[in-house]
């Protein structure tokens, strides 16, 4: 479990010492709660005994919480101090850099409002006052992100035995408008590709032909591309799970051309005048849209466009979900945009079904006929 240090195992968990690159040792504990594995750094621990004391306390709290025994009283920390522990022990351990930056930014705003407040002071009323004040300055989406961060912090306080329950679990977020996803027409798609700069067009084609995310495309390396097997191995994904996407004929020609041009580089897509990988295409993509006369199009809409076209072609959501790298079909359903023409064709299918059924129904006479009572009795 810990090849770079020493580990001491106990029936209820483990204490281990990990050496940093600078050679400094740091103590950690490991235990399980309801099947969930928990690893935590022991702050200010100097010896194995320090780590063992914290391990016993944590496991004891988990046992008491599970079987309804009262928890040991612990110091009611300031929210801003506990926020630092949250970042160090949870956010930076379990989340991606983008999410960590979001937590850090949210905590800056939360700390200003809740300055001097302790964990037990975070009540639904005080949280409602924070929401009311922040909503005057920022969008509902920003308030929602900060509220999510606050709930996550308080949840960790409950999990780590600092609070008995989360008092703000029922505080509601703002209802955000559904994002307006843009699907390109055939004419718009042609204009966009024609308007792309030379360094941008291969990136746009990759998005249209694979439905990959922008970050996945820009971080793509040649060792992830197999032109012989015609596959791309996507590694840096949002869900953390890798996936393999086939390369179609259009993209194969484009990647083969790039391989001849810059195959010596580690990355597939390079900047317009350098050997370094592309960092972002926001400015170039906006310029291409402006030249093409296309409004309201984001780079992420290329992913929606590709997914929608696969669904329109009749491919099932399970297949599309695997290509997109979604963890659930529900997420993929957001990308299935039925066009008005598809809706009309679907309704026409019902008309054909009814019409074909009518051909098999005999025409019933409106004249009443008298049927003898013994008409259906066989004669012997």
Task: Write up what this structure looks like.
With about 375 residues, the chain is of the alpha+beta class. It has three domains: about 5-65, Double Stranded RNA Binding Domain (2-Layer Sandwich); about 80-160, Tyrosine recombinase, N-terminal domain (DNA polymerase, domain 1, Orthogonal Bundle); about 185-335, hpI Integrase, Chain A (Orthogonal Bundle), CATH 1.10.443.10. It is built from 14 helices and seven strands. The strands form two sheets. Strands 1-2-3-4 form a four-stranded antiparallel sheet, with helices on one face. A hairpin with a 2-residue loop joins strand 3 and strand 4 (about 35-40). The protein is globular, with a radius of gyration of 30 Å.
In the CATH scheme, what's the topology name of the largest domain?
hpI Integrase, Chain A
CATH homologous superfamily caption of the largest domain:
Intergrase catalytic core
Compute the number of helices: 14
Q: What integer value in Å does the Rg equal? A: 30 Å
**Count of all domains:** 3
| Overall CATH architecture of the largest domain | Orthogonal Bundle
Number of strands: 7
Q: Report, as a whole number of angstroms, the end-to-end distance.
A: 89 Å
Strand content: 5-15%
Biggest sheet, strands in spatial order? 1-2-3-4
